[in-house]
Amino acid sequence: MTTVLQTLLDIARDCPLAFSVAALDAAVRSSVVTVDQMRSFSEAHPVRTGTRKIVKVLENVDARRESVAESICAVRFVEHSIPGFEPQVDIRDGGGKHLGRTDFANRRAKVIAEFDGAGKYHLDGADPQLTFERERRREYALRNEGWLVFRVRWSDLFSADLFLRIGESVRRRLVVDDSRREA
User: Fold this and answer.
1) Residue 64 in contact with residue 87, Cβ under 8 Å?
2) What is the fold of 76-182?
3) Which of 15, 56, 128, 174 could disulfide-pair with 121, CB 3.0 to 4.6 Å?
């Protein structure tokens, strides 16, 4: 027998970063444990190997992520050294009108990453076509406010291509932003 805390820290020590973060995110999001409880337990029960890996996992846990896919996406940002992405960001237009909540946003670069799971088009018996149309209008409104929107699919989570493009877009937009501030 083992405790929930021990099991979660075993996962953090023994499994790949993306899987570990997804499992711990889910545990924290569902209020099974807190990150502080996991840190305290880890400190009180040191392991012979894997301590740095556990620390890295705990540094990347965030209960705001709403799915396994979002947790994996967040880890990919870290692995590709893409800074500044926050989960579940509310975006408003210049007049304060709420345009939507995004899965991830880098506010400074005005870059959004949305996980495109097909499930949302069928939630609660919703009409998929109507849901798709609402999503399309929301994305147009975000783009009209100067946001660059990337759609992330499951297959993108296991390939570097999209994350390299996102990282380059963030870097370019930050350079432009910095040059405007200097002017």
Assistant:
1) yes
2) Endonuclease; Chain A (3.40.960)
3) 128
The answer to whether 110 and 148 are in contact (CB under 8 A) is yes
pTM for this predicted structure? 0.87
Q: What is the four-CA torsion angle of 94, 99, 105, 107, rounded to 10 degrees?
A: 10
| Residue-by-residue DSSP string for 104-153 | EEETTTTEEEEE--GGGGGGGG--HHHHHHHHHHHHHHHHHTT-EEEEE-
Summarize pLDDT for 116-152 with one digit per residue, the tens: 866 555 556 667 778 778 888 999 999 999 999 999 9
pLDDT digits (tens, 9 = 90+) for 147-179: 999 999 999 999 999 999 999 999 999 997 666
C-alpha 103, offset from chain centre: 6
Are the C-beta atoms of 131 and 124 separated by less than 8 Å?
no
What's the rounded Cα separation, in Å, for the pair 161 and 90?
Answer: 27
Give the three-state DSSP class for 84. Answer: coil
As beta bridge partners, residue 112 has 105, 149
